[in-house]
Amino acid sequence: MEFKISPLGDVAVVLSFGNEINERTNRQIQLFVSKLEIEKIRGIIEWVPAYTSLTIYYQPEMIAYESLKAELEKVSLSPGESKSDRKFVYEIPVCYGGEWGVDLAYVADYHGMEKQEVIDIHANREYLIYMMGFMPGFPYLGGLPEKLAVPRLEKPRQSVVPGAVGIGGNQTGIYPADVPSGWRIIGTTPVTLFSPEKEEPFLFGSGQYIKFVPISEEQFLTIKQMGDTYEVKRIEKR
Amino acid sequence: MTEFLFKVLKPGLQTTIQDLGRTGYQQYGISPSGAMDPYSLQMANLLVGNPLHEAGLEATMLGPSLEAMTDVSVAICGGNLQPMVNKKKVSMWKSFVFKKGDILSFGKVESGTRAYIGFAGGIDVPLVLGSKSTFINGAMGGFNGRALEAGDIVHGRPFVRKNRFLHKEFIPEYNAQLVIRVILGPHLEKFHPDAIKRFLSNEYTISPQSNRMGFRLEGPELGHIGGADIISDAIPAGGIQVPSNGQPIILMAERQTTGGYARIATVISVDLPLLAQAMPGTKIGFAEITIKEAQELYRKQRKLFNVLSIVSR
């Protein structure tokens, strides 16, 4: 495992694992996180995995930068544990098109496809959650087929509904709450991605996978009504 | 037991409930939020006999008007927004008894920007992901996920204790000119070498477009090598990002957890409270220090809080 450690101010360090976004780098970062969970270095508060880096926040009164750096180098040599490295694919139901996906027609027209073709390509494939950020519960997904890439809106919308699934450039993702967005909205999921009052507030985290599953408007409304009692299906990835 | 603490008569410009922030959830995109000036919040807590991490009010520039619904010890630290009880001036950095029916109000800004009001027994709002801090953009925590509004009634577990004051030596001075110490990096390879020199040798002015998320600065342009974009990564408090217009932005308490602009440096922890008290228009210079020096200063400040926690018991 190769990485470079540098200070990030006086309460964080950043481990750089390269400068290319790919699954291999992401797996290395996730493996390192699983080792950190086992080793429990004194003074570490939390960490944030990103595309090619892992940022670790710590308390300098518990451990100084140089000692932390040495500990982290040791951790990288530890074997880790495969148990904590289990990966799941979360099946996210999505109602595509109509009022729930106002830009589906645009995306289809842009590529000279039928709307159903866009849905078939976008759904039923696994997208890796490289990192989370930007807003609570927002996943940065990798794996959108290039043939679905579309330019962003020239003027971003003031807000999109929570659960909106969109495409912006060569990225796709889900908005957990209403925010301004320049992405083309092709569908909406009735599932709540983030509920702070629940014991497990977040449905998924970085290193896991998402698969979009098309549903009808009727199913959409049923799941929406079920609220938190609807359980998202997840399948272990091998 | 929880009881009525105060009623909001006027909310002020932006008065929020803040503690030391929401840790542990940045990997899910949750901003830590918390007090912009944690030094002053912790001092206010000490003066009223609270644990350091207890939540208080953060008032910004134009303070609120509050009516006490019970007797409670209160201390106000940080920026001097001219606090008054029943229209009579009260001292800062000193606890007093806020009596049922008393009205706490504020005047014009005399120094600093943000005042912290600590209430003995703290503020009783639900912990959301382990913190009472208001995360305004996430509509989460604090009082219903928002700044206080007129008519709000806030609960606490109030008590009264002997008045205390803080020694002068521990009261910071807020100036219209600031030298903020930074640790350079992490994306230095994205900047022209003369941009780094320019950053360290010029003054930057805090723009009026500054808030709890970040302070926009205006000054000599900082040029990039190969554009301002980086592969998105995590941003710490005090991270100084430079978008393509070359004007730096310092990310503050309610920053987004990750970002995609190159960062030239990070403000050291002990200087963040001083920066948080700087008004728009303040001129800032930046000075480089080593990680070792920064962490010594950090430990010294922690030690001070530990000692004061023991003596104020």
Structural overview:
The complex is a heterodimer of chains A (238) and B (313). Chain A is of the alpha+beta class. Chain A folds into 2 domains: 4-85, Gyrase A, domain 2; 87-237, Cyclophilin, CATH 2.40.100.10. Helices cover 24% and strands 28% of the residues of chain A. In chain A, a hairpin with a 6-residue loop joins β6 (126-132) and β7. In chain A, α3 (104-111) crosses α4. With 313 residues, chain B is α+β, with helices and mostly antiparallel strands. Chain B has 2 domains: 3-170, no CATH class; 177-301, Cyclophilin, CATH 2.40.100. In chain B, the strands form 4 sheets. A 7-stranded mixed barrel of chain B has the order 12-19-16-17-14-13-20. A 6-stranded antiparallel β-sheet of chain B has the order 7-6-9-4-1-11, with no helix packed on it. The model of chain B has no long low-confidence stretch (mean pLDDT 96). The chains are: A alpha+beta (238), B alpha+beta (313). The A-B interface holds A 6-12, 14, 19, 21, 45-53, 55, 57, 60-61, 64-65, 131-138, 140, 177, 194, 196-197, 201-202, 205-206 and B 23-30, 128-129, 137-140, 183, 185-186, 231-234, 236-239, 256-259, 266-269, 291-292, 294-295, 298-299, 302.
In short:
With 238 residues, chain A is of the alpha+beta class. Chain A has five helices and twelve strands.
